[in-house]
Amino acid sequence: MRIKYALYTLLMLLAGLTGPAQTIVLDNPTLIDGTGKAPRALHNLVIQGDKIVAIDGEYTGRRATKIDMRGKYIIPLINDVHAHLGILKDTVMSSANYTPENVHRHLLKFEAYGVGAVLCMGTDHPEIFDLRRASRKDSLTGATIYTAGRGFGENSGLPPPSFGMDQVFRPETPDEARKDVREMAVYHPDLLKMWVDDGRGKVPKMPPEIYSAIIDEAHKNGIRVAAHLWYLEDARKLVDAGLDVIAHSVRDQEIDDDLLAKMKSKGVIYIPTLSLDEFAFMYGDDPDWINDPFFKASLEPGVYEMITSPAYKNKVTRDPGSAVEKAALQTALKNLKKVYDAGIMVALGTDAGAQPVRAMGFSEHMELELMVKAGLTPLQVITIGTLNGAVLLRAEKETGTIAVGKKASFIVLDKDPAADIRNSRTIHAVWKNGKVVSSGPLTDH
Ligand SMILES: [Zn+2]
After folding, report:
1. How far apart are the first and last CA of the chain?
2. What pLDDT does residue 284 have?
3. Is the pLDDT of residue 367 over 70?
4. What percentage of residues in the chain have a pLDDT greater than 90?
5. What is the distance between the alpha carbons of residues 249 and 271, in angstroms, rounded to a whole number?
6. How far is the CA of 438 from the centre of ligand 1 (A)?
7. 350 alpha carbon to ligand 1 midpoint, in Å?
8. Smallest Cα–Cα separation from 357: which of 75, 30, 90, 68?
9. Phi, psi (degrees; rounded to nearest 5) at 70
10. CA distance linking residue 191 with residue 172, whole number of Å
């Protein structure tokens, strides 16, 4: 390993001696930079190495390669800050699926859909930390890994081990919770994740003395904490206990002004994961995108056959839980608008990869569309999907917007997503760190 690294360093030095990095000039794209600014027609965007060095500016470099981008739109890569890696394969959720190869396959799939980074929320195995290191150094391709490491759940409660979520601490006392946090802190996870939910009264819920200990001990170790939740009253208690990130929508009631004010003053980040709620019932309703190749390409083998089978559709339609989920989505949509209008930071998450029906890659584009349905503008949701996720990941100095000095990482689209957010699906190419890494999920594109 050490020899390999020395060789790599030598090669990089030699590459540096042969002259400045190659210059690439994108001619005449329309820029949507991720800050919320209106689309702007550019003369050029100039890339050297992995960075953007000029926008509508002068550039040097005789060997500049020009690429005609008239009629194309560029937006930053999407950051999905609530997803799950490695446990899904075909139609099966299992801990046994979690291998470096399966994680890497998922990273490539996310990337093909324009997702630049993924935060895996609490279901990772110990291998993730080596994979994260490789991913951040660019020696592992695909979306960049961020991880909450091993999450914190409740005994006989969430998350369900039957979904491959068995690499989770389930502390029974505050002392045990603190010990578990310290054990995880050694690995420097990007944050910690805990589940505070009784599954609509079906299973025991993590009690306040446990989650308070987790938050307190994590903060002592300089780590932020995110929570899976459902109920308004849990959100209130968690925010009072110092929670940093709400990792799903509040779905039982509308959020009141008192909690909104607290979330705002404490800088809590809110991840609505609307697509999760939609996916819980949508396949029973024959959605208009069910045969869209952009959707089908995101599915694991066998999932399309599963979700279009009469047996599955029947099950979803008859399940009393589907009506609960439909109502939950409506509440979630209202709450997103309230949270956004209150000036609270919202970031994009999907829970993709936590169940076979939550398709990796497609979910992120559906999430953008659902946020527009909640009453936000396409430009606002593009900022949520790009810059705000980078802020949550503390990566905004290098990614999240398209600006001089930042990484040349963006999606090239055939149609304007500011005019119709569904145009985020017209992926022509995905660029990461100055290189084309994918031409989208459809090979015949
Ligand atoms: Zn999740």
Report:
1. 39
2. 85
3. yes
4. 85
5. 7
6. 26
7. 8
8. 90
9. -60, 130
10. 21
Q: With 70 as the cut, is the pLDDT of residue 246 above it? A: yes
Burial class (CB in 10 A: 0-12, 13-18, 19+), 110: buried
- Write the pLDDT tens digit of every residue in 85-114: 999 999 999 999 999 999 999 999 999 999
Give residue 32 CA to ligand 1 midpoint distance, Å: 29
Give the pLDDT confidence of 277-300 residue by residue, as tens digits. 888 888 888 898 999 999 999 999
Sole residue written with tokens 């910690």 = 192
Ion ligand 1, residues whose Cβ is below 5 A away: 121, 351, 354
C-alpha span between 209 and 217 (Å, rounded): 12
Ligand 1 centre from 176 Cα, in Å?
Answer: 23
Residues 303 and 359: their CA atoms lie apart, in Å, by 9
CA of 424 to the centre of ligand 1 (A): 24
Residue in this structure with the two tokens 């000039």, named with its chain if needed:
25
**What would the pLDDT profile of 393-403 be if each residue is shown by its tens digit?**
999 999 999 99
pTM over 0.85, yes/no: yes
Domains of the chain plus CATH, in order, are: 2-75+402-438 (2.30.40.10), 77-392 (3.20.20.140)
Structure-block tokens of residue 241: 């206990």
Ligand 1 centroid to residue 82 C-alpha, Å: 6
